[in-house]
Amino acid sequence: MPSRHIKNLIERRDEGICWHCGTDQTTIHHRKNRGMGGQKSSISDLPSNLLTICPEFNGAMESDVNAYRLATEMGWKLRNGEMPYNIPVYRYDDTWWIIDDHGSKFQLEQKGLF
Q: Range of 90's domain?
């Protein structure tokens, strides 16, 4: 699990809201599963690999194939080999972002940029 410092950084960056639906009821979600990089992976708990997601959708990504497909299309979930800092992330308000490992996010001008 991420350290308290990293959790606070993610909460601030994401404004405490779910990237999927905008609710303020969230949990910290790993975009790249720990099993894909190993729990000891240097990527696992980096800010670019972490998002705030509502618990309902967090569970759905793991149990529903359609939710998983949506999550990979929107950058909330990563496929094996994808690096978190290279994959844009969709936010519920119809915007796309790049998130870095310093606790910042940068909005993309257009959806078609990547």
A: 4-113
